[in-house]
Amino acid sequence: MNARRTAAMLGLELYALMLACAQHVLIGLRSEEAMHLLGIFSAHPPLARFLLSLFDGWAYQEIFWRIVFATLLVQAVWLVLDLSRDLARSVRISVAVTWLFSVPVVLQAGTVTMTSLTAVQGLLFVWLLLSGRDVARYAWGIGLLWMASLFTAYQALLFAPVVWGALRSQDPAATPAQRRMRLGIWLVPMLLLGLFALTHPLALMDMVSQVTGRMDLLADRSRDAGRILLLGGSGILSVTGIIGLLLARRWVLLQSFLLIFAYIVVLGTDGDALLLLPLLIAGLSTLAHSWRWVAIATAVLVFVGSPVWCRSFFSSLPARRMDPASVLGVIGATDRSGVLLIAGPFGYEWQYASELPVRRYAARRLSEAAAVVCLQPCEEMERQERWERITKDPVEVWRPLR
Amino acid sequence: MQQWLFWIVVLVVLAVLLPRLWALRLLYADADVRGKARAALERTMEDSGWLPSDVLVRSVTHDRMRVDVRPHHRGTDASSCLLLPFEQTKPIFCDSSR
Hints:
The complex is a heterodimer of chains A (402) and B (98).
Chain A: H1 3-27, H2 31-37, H3 46-53, H4 61-75, H5 77-83, H6 89-101, H7 103-108, H8 114-130, H9 139-150, H10 160-169, H11 176-198, H12 201-215, H13 218-232, H14 236-248, H15 251-267, H16 277-290, H17 292-316, H18 324-329, E1 339-343, H19 348-353, E2 358-360, E3 369-374, E4 387-391, E5 396-400
Parallel strand pairs in A: 1-2, 1-3
Antiparallel strand pairs in A: 3-5, 4-5
Helix pairs in contact in A: 1-4, 5-6, 5-8, 6-16, 6-17, 8-10, 8-16, 9-11, 10-11, 10-15, 13-14, 13-15, 14-16, 16-17
Chain B: H1 2-23, H2 25-29, H3 31-48, E1 55-60, E2 64-69, E3 80-85, E4 92-93
Antiparallel strand pairs in B: 1-2, 2-3, 3-4
């Protein structure tokens, strides 16, 4: 590896570190992130959350994985560079800049979410499809990678058309037996994922109810989806990327794009905009083969526009959410054999901050409680003689009288 | 080599998932059992304050279900195996039922 490339990697790593620290300092731990760090049974398959939870209890678990996730997303730019390797240097750098400074990467790099991992895996599959290399020899390896992706997050299914394209594309002279083999490589991991879903009925029920619950809101969801589409491409890339996908006539890319868009309409959040980015980048790379200036203009507009979008995002955030760790810190030494009761709606970040098991508050459970946190007023606690309130604002924290 | 590894992984995953699915088959095959299981779980979670994310359904029979309860928090999580009979309101620890 030459010195220039090494310097570039180090520079990218500094950028990743900066993005990870920004998430840690400016946003803090989200509920979804806490869920993954604790290895909580969730809607997602177990591969990534098992790895994340290996460091449960380590004081630096959160920042460590933020840095890892940011590194994966930022260093993935080498795949983007390879996609445009037959283009002029200025165009290659433009496409890379577009990836690195796009709004989804700036806002999502350093978040401990399955969306970040799926986006990197999706980019890898897009690269396998478009790289022009003979990947047919590695069909079984691609199958293993496909299985790992599916067992990281269900969202990997959205890239199924791209994976199928990658398995078929490099060997037009394949025999019927080879075609059946590749179909098996593509289908078997998805069937295993289906089996896994059936072994977690509570998570499955939750997913089904989320989908059916949102079908009534399709009109509103469609408007949101349009906004998320713009967010995914930082505006200009959404246009140039889609034009490039249409011109490329790689139908598997368009199929994945439509699947992701449909997913965003039904279930998506702003964070899912990142899933569109690998496909939009592929479209831009294709367009750049015909019109170099488009890639350069896109990069400039993304680079200039990204701070504006991000600033708008940060200014729309509520004041830093109350920090569960600081709230729970006032409890001090407690009877460590008890549980923490929480009243009101709360996210997994409270479980992450607590050294005690957490249960929903009810007055009948006070005998087993070491402390009570009321995120909404607990009028019953006022009548409890053996309990003292430690804090009132912004939340009530109660502990037994000593 | 890749082909062998692929099929070994598939077999390992099947070996883990198929017994679990077999233990849960009544949940999908029998609407009556499904209704009773849901009611028992909701009743127990309401009584105990367990969070849904801390409960994992392991097996279902015609008269009871077995769940693992693992309250997640920082550090080592204690795990309990409990039986939820459909006709009773109190869960039973798996060990005490023997």
